[in-house]
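Hi everyone, sorry if this is the wrong subforum. Our group has a chain we'd like a structural model of before ordering constructs, and none of us has done structure prediction before. Sequence below.
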Amino acid sequence: MPLFTILIVLIVAGVLLWLVNSIIPMDGKIKNIFNIVVVLVVIVWLLKVFGIFAYLTSITV
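Answer:
Right subforum, don't worry. Here is the predicted structure as tokens:
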């Protein structure tokens, strides 16, 4: 996946997260949980894009 595409996806995800946080009225706790979930999803997606996720899942203890 080209680096430009990854950058565009990250920018779009950040703008959407900012819009949800600034426009939709939510309780602070729910907003915090939502932010954590979105950040974790983006991190897992980045790990999959760069192939690190497959490496980490193949490690056996």
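For your construct planning: The longest helix spans residues 28-49. The radius of gyration is 15 Å.
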